[in-house]
């Protein structure tokens, strides 16, 4: 078991970084697992990643709940829309060849990295485009900060259904897509978007993980890998949430974007 211990600091880093920007860490963990275990089948990789994302999201959500940053009503509605897609995505993984899986994931990483690098999420004003508003929300943080915003509920539900399918299929949890969607298209304030995304991730990742468990996808050492990474993730998520109000999100996201480009290119080359 000693050769698994190095996975704990890996999980800690994933938990801290993932919780800091509300993405769960699956988009980092999957490429790492693909590089470390090139002969593993896609369902094993995605099952491990989704289980780790669940523990990360659970720990991060607990921290954000204490800060009162989670929009529970919106999170539950979006999660309800995403669950059917998450189940279908988990079931579809078995039918995708490994090389195709690598190619799709590599391309997704490059596209996501390009978007995150060149778009400043701080530039969006939650008060813009009032004509698109349908559901008004008012969230008050524990420190008294008030966030008043509104969004198109139908658009949010539709996008969540799509995110649920894609994230479960690729084992990335969905936060890498959901956070930009919440901020860019649904007018969520950044801090509320990251916290609410984490809350949704916990529900979505748990659903997909249960499906993978029922299918027996945790064979071939998957359980041990998950346990050790999860230990680090549970601790790291608390640190990431604590840092969320102190570290400039733009530089963190751009740093991750650079790493994603290199990882995406490498995986894409391996698939060709």
Structure characterization notes:
It is a single chain. The protein is mainly alpha-helical. It has one domain (2-271). The chain has helices spanning 7-21, 26-36, 42-67, 72-92, 98-118, 153-170, 175-185, 190-215, 222-243, 249-271, and strands at residues 135-140, 146-151. Strands 1-2 form a two-stranded antiparallel ribbon. A hairpin with a 5-residue loop joins strand 1 and strand 2 (146-151). Helix 2 (26-36) runs antiparallel to helix 3 (42-67), helix 4 (72-92) runs parallel beside helix 6 (153-170) and helix 5 packs antiparallel against helix 10. The model has no long low-confidence stretch (mean pLDDT 80).
Topology:
Blueprint: H1 7-21, H2 26-36, H3 42-67, H4 72-92, H5 98-118, E1 135-140, E2 146-151, H6 153-170, H7 175-185, H8 190-215, H9 222-243, H10 249-271
Helix pairs in contact: 1-3, 1-9, 2-3, 2-10, 3-8, 3-9, 4-6, 4-8, 5-10, 6-7, 7-8
Q: What is the overall number of helices? A: 10
Structural class: mainly alpha
Strand content: under 5%
Secondary-structure element order, N to C: HHHHHEEHHHHH
Number of domains: 1
Distance between the termini: 34 Å
Biggest β-sheet: strands ordered side by side in the sheet: 1-2
Q: Per the principal axes of the C-alpha atoms, what is the gross shape?
A: globular
Give the strand tally: 2
Main pleated-sheet profile: 2 strands, antiparallel
Helix content: over 70%
Mean pLDDT equals 80
Low-confidence stretches: none
Computed over alpha carbons, the radius of gyration is 17 Å
């Amino acid at each position: 078991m000693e050769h698994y211990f190095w996975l704990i600091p890996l999980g800690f880093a994933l938990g801290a970084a993932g919780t800091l920007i509300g993405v769960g860490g699956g988009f980092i963990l999957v490429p790492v697992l693909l590089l470390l275990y090139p002969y593993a089948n896609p369902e094993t990789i995605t099952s491990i990643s989704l289980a780790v994302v669940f523990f990360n999201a659970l720990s991060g959500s607990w921290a954000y709940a204490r800060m009162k940053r989670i929009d529970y009503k919106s999170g539950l509605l979006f999660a309800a829309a995403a669950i059917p897609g998450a189940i279908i995505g988990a079931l579809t993984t078995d039918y995708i060849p490994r090389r195709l899986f690598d190619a799709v994931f590599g391309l997704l990483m490059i596209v996501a990295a390009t978007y995150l690098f060149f778009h400043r999420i701080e530039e969006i004003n939650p008060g813009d485009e009032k004509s698109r508003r349908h559901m008004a929300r008012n969230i008050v943080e524990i420190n008294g900060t008030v966030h008043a915003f509104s969004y198109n509920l139908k658009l949010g539900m539709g996008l969540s259904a799509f995110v649920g399918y894609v994230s479960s299929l690729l084992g990335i949890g969905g936060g890498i897509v959901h956070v930009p969607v919440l901020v860019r298209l649904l007018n969520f304030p950044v801090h509320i978007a990251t916290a609410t995304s984490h809350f949704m991730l916990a529900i979505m990742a748990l659903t997909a993980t249960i499906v993978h468990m029922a299918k027996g996808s945790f064979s071939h050492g998957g359980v041990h890998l998950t346990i050790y990474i999860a230990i680090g993730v549970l601790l790291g998520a608390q640190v990431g949430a604590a840092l969320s109000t102190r570290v400039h999100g733009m530089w963190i996201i751009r740093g991750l974007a650079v790493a994603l480009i290199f990882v995406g290119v490498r995986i894409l080359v391996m698939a060709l």
